[in-house]
RNA sequence: GGUCCCAUCGUCUAGUGGCCUAGGACUCCAGCUUUUCAAGCUGGCUACGCGGGUUCGAAUCCCGCUGGGACUGCCA
């Protein structure tokens, strides 16, 4: 008895959807929890009109980012066209299929109010020959029922009479999803079909195809185990839409989510580890994951929770790891990849790696996304900060006491010992002289030096920035205020 | 319309007849801490959709209702 063989079979018709990412992950879990598990990536690219090569790259790179390593692939379903054609020929010869020249309009017109089942079997007994206008349909049994044994949902029964004679191959000869997928699953000796719940209605059709294929080929291939994952939905409880929802896995990478955090969150959508702890190491997830334990109901993809988990993962990193992992956002010139559409606000020459290493710990505990780093340390790498006008107006321009504070600081900073603790004391003392509590006293200085009212701890920042630079910025702010 | 799936805090979930006056996590709120912002700590709000059964006992089993969703393509 060999291990589980699973496949993730996306179609390259858009960004790599987070729902797809979760399907891929759950498949991968099943493969990796056995020493002899096998994981295939199969690109289902038979619909030439909608598929684009760049989307394939997106799938491959996103999976690699998430660490979902493959045992095989990416395979192209289009490469298996001969096998699909062979399946059609055999099924046709076996009497399981028939030609049909009905157009969509024909079917629609005949259906009228009675919409069950979709196609009325009009061509079933017409004995049509193959032509450019004929598609191929499957003769669905008109009695009995088909039961899908689903690992997550249990047995789901479909009456065969409500399943129409669905199209198996287009008039162009291209074999469609139901059969192409089944043929490839048989050839790949797939044992577990783990996919989104939207495919549940396809399962009985595919089971019929599977056993018909067993008949006509004489190969008695065992049916795979099915597991239909609950959908990922948006706030309106609708299936996540590529058009309206932020579903592109790539964009999460670009924003600075950590792959480990992303995987951990994805796993929590529909599954939960034993005990009260949700953030668990990957090895534990792989070991404990069970399809039988997957929840039945749709889950909302909650970016807030994802972000929280990401922040925790960031804080768990060592400072060295943090510096290393932040490279794409702070020194893309040193990095193997760059987040798209995110320009670093300083040049290679202005960047100071040593300085960044020193502020890194201060930044690390205040961010949730790596993409937040640049805005937080920007002021270190320019002669003058990029001034937030609203902050400047509020904290300095419209506040005479604040300006007194800056003047006092300029005078005092000239010969004070330049270290954070001393600066802290001095600012506190200066503030007291002006009747300001520390939080008020530090605000104008922070604003003048960093250009913002929020940021890393001020006195540590001043120490790193240096005396001259700090005083120059304070003077400049005073100028601007008058 | 038809078929199928689903139903515990706002969200993700734990819970498989008694351990549940329903647990954890996120969010939110309050407080503490505090050089800003975060983080951290403490506390709080809030849920078994409704109605019937079964049972000594039901969030857990059964039925009905209601609600939500998926599918219903010569897309996947």
Please describe what this structure looks like:
- The chain is mainly α.
- Helix content is 45%, strand content 11%.
- Among the domains are: 318-369, no CATH class; 389-481, Orthogonal Bundle (Arc Repressor Mutant, subunit A), CATH 1.10.10.350.
- It has 20 helices and twelve strands.
- Strands 1-2-3 form a three-stranded parallel β-sheet. Strands 4-5-8 form a three-stranded antiparallel β-sheet. A two-stranded antiparallel sheet has the order 6-7.
- Strand 1 (5-8), helix 1 and strand 2 form a beta-alpha-beta unit.
- The mean pLDDT is 94.
- It binds one RNA strand of 76 nucleotides through strand 5, strand 7, strand 8, helix 5 and strand 12.
List keywords for this structure.
12 strands; RNA-binding; elongated; mainly alpha; Arc Repressor Mutant, subunit A; 482 residues; 45% helix; three-stranded antiparallel β-sheet
**Rg result:** 31 Å
Structural class: mainly alpha
Q: What is the distance, rounded to the nearest whole angstrom, between the alpha carbons of the first and last residues?
A: 83 Å
Number of strands: 12
CATH class of the domain at 389-481: Mainly Alpha
Helix proportion range:
40-55%
Rough shape?
elongated
Largest sheet: 3 strands, parallel
Instruction: Return the average pLDDT rounded to an integer.
Output: 94
Strand order of the largest sheet: 1-2-3
Question: Which consecutive residue ranges, at least 5 long each, have pLDDT under 50?
Answer: none
Compact description:
The chain is mainly α and 482 residues long. The chain has helices at 18-32, 53-66, 81-93, 104-111, 177-187, 202-217, 249-255, 259-268, 282-288, 303-316, 319-325, 327-330, 353-364, 373-377, 389-397, 400-413, 420-433, 438-450, 458-465, 467-481, and strands at residues 5-8, 38-43, 72-76, 97-100, 135-138, 145-150, 154-159, 167-169, 192-196, 225-229, 232-233, 299-300. Among the domains are: 318-369, no CATH class; 389-481, Arc Repressor Mutant, subunit A, CATH 1.10.10.
